[in-house]
Amino acid sequence: MRRVARPLAWLVLLLAAAWLMPVLEPLFGALAPDRGTVIYPRASFLSLLGEHLAIVGVAATMAIVIGVGAAIVVTRPAGSEFLPLVSQLASIGQTFPPVAVLALSVPALGYGPSAVVVALVLYGLLPIVRNTLAGLKAVDRGVVESARGIGLSPGQVLWQVELPIAAPAILGGIRTSVTINIATAAIGSTIGANTLGDPIISGIVNNNIAFTLQGAVLIGLLAVTVDSAFSRLG
């Protein structure tokens, strides 16, 4: 019960903050007394939260499938020669600025969430690939040979022995990737995607610290909620 209590508490706090943000208008009014509107008006915070989560969720799913799949392939004898290439490509994906990826994706994918998903997938691959490789390489070869000795096929060894043993390391990489992308997804608002970055961008453009703080607080709460959930899962 205690394992789920903390993530649930953060989730309740996140939803309450998104739902009750207008109630805090007097507080934000004190922060920006020269502004007539201090609560972001263009969309509800709950809808922005939902769309932000959807973008991050799609990107995370794709990054997990690609990252874990690539790491598995290059740790098999048939794909071992591609190990350096996969590691380098994953590293390049994270060092390449997400804003630059957005700029290159927009002409092909147009404005909106699709370009953001591409940027987040590239940005989130490195932790997943790196941790999956580390986890699979750390599996005791004696355990693998014992599994083969009792008649398990290579596929059974992978799914019943290697991946379960490597799971904590893999989960750690996914946790890092998703947490980073929760914050990174905010830049999607610059190309028309509806995210919790909307009030932040609007606040910067209009010099309204209240808008910026509202988006930042919700993104922070979302990141802590998800990280807490991964911590309990681990």
Automatic annotation (TrEMBL):
Belongs to the binding-protein-dependent transport system permease family. PROSITE patterns: ABC_TM1 (PS50928). Keywords: Membrane, Transmembrane, Transmembrane helix, Transport. It is a multi-pass membrane protein. This is ABC transporter permease. The chain crosses the membrane at residues 53-75, 82-104, 110-129. It comes from Spiribacter pallidus. Gene3D superfamilies: MetI-like. Pfam families: BPD_transp_1. The keyword Membrane applies. It is found in: Cell membrane. Residues 49-230 form the ABC transmembrane type-1 domain. It comes from the Bacteria. Its main location: membrane.
